Amino acid sequence: MPDGKKKKAMPPFYDLISPKQAEAWLSRNTGNRPLNESLVAEYARKMESGEWKEKGVAPIWVTEDGELVNGQHRLSAVIRVGHPVLLKVQIREKPPVSWQEWHNRRKDLKRKN
Q1: Going by C-beta distance under 8 Å and a sequence separation of 6 or more, which residues neighbour residue 99?
Q2: Global model pTM greater than 0.85
């Protein structure tokens, strides 16, 4: 930013994410870890059965220019179930580090808490 101030992230919000929206965001998934198919299957099963809970889950993270940073497994599950699912979303700036470094930092924080 020109003035050196960090831009505030938009607060997370809940939205019904359609398979079409999930596909659009996944098409902009440029730096995420490899997809874990068994995790997608588990999420899809829970979404289909009504067991899916978003409480305590990090939001789907999309940058202001539409790049997907976090949430590829949930979005892939939405496509698999074929109908909209209520998910927590946050539009914010791109992280200043790679997905691997960012993911490792998240793991470290969880271990400390």
Answers
A1: 31, 32, 33, 69
A2: no
